[in-house]
Design brief:
Order of helices and strands: HHHHH
Number of strands: 0
Number of helices: 5
Shape: elongated
Helix content: over 70%
Structural class: mainly alpha
Radius of gyration: 20 Å
């Protein structure tokens, strides 16, 4: 089930990136090939870029690829790593959970406003940030559980 979900998330991310690439090609062709810039391509590219970045960070990038303080991590023993993992993931997950209600409120409030050219409700432009917060909270809860069980602490982090 987990591999299927990861494949699905990767497929959505790849599809978003492909859509961004196609919109970018249309934009270049219209602007430089026909000397007729299209306003909708600029807006679509920005929206897709936001979605690609936030979707990728939330669903596709494995935890080991995120920024870590490996000098500090590598300098402590197993118990220190366990404490650091529990505290660090608790803070990140807690902040994501704390921000979620206000973020959801803002995103749903923005459904009344539309983008200037496409008229797409801003709710759909900002929705990936909500997904990112939910993913952070879930990943952090899982990481705290794993750290409390003593799993994932033995590997030394390297660039």
């Amino acid at each position: 089930m987990r591999t299927w979900l990861q494949r699905f998330a990767n497929g959505v991310g790849g599809g978003l990136f492909l859509a961004l690439f196609v919109v970018f090609l249309v934009q270049i062709t219209a602007r430089f090939g026909f000397n007729k810039p299209l306003a909708w391509t600029d807006e679509a590219a920005v929206i897709l870029y936001v979605w690609v970045i936030l979707w990728g960070a939330a669903m596709m990038v494995p935890e080991r690829e995120h920024v870590v303080f490996d000098l500090l991590w590598n300098s402590v023993g197993r118990r220190g790593k366990q404490v650091m993992a529990v505290v660090g993931h608790s803070v990140i997950g807690g902040l994501a959970l704390w921000a979620l209600p206000a973020t959801w409120d803002y995103v749903t409030f923005m459904s009344r406003e539309g983008t200037p050219v496409l008229g797409l409700p801003f709710m759909w432009v900002f929705m990936p940030f909500v997904l990112l917060l939910v993913a952070l909270a879930l990943r952090s809860a899982w990481a705290v559980w794993q750290a409390l069980r003593g799993r994932g602490l033995e590997a030394e982090l390297r660039v």
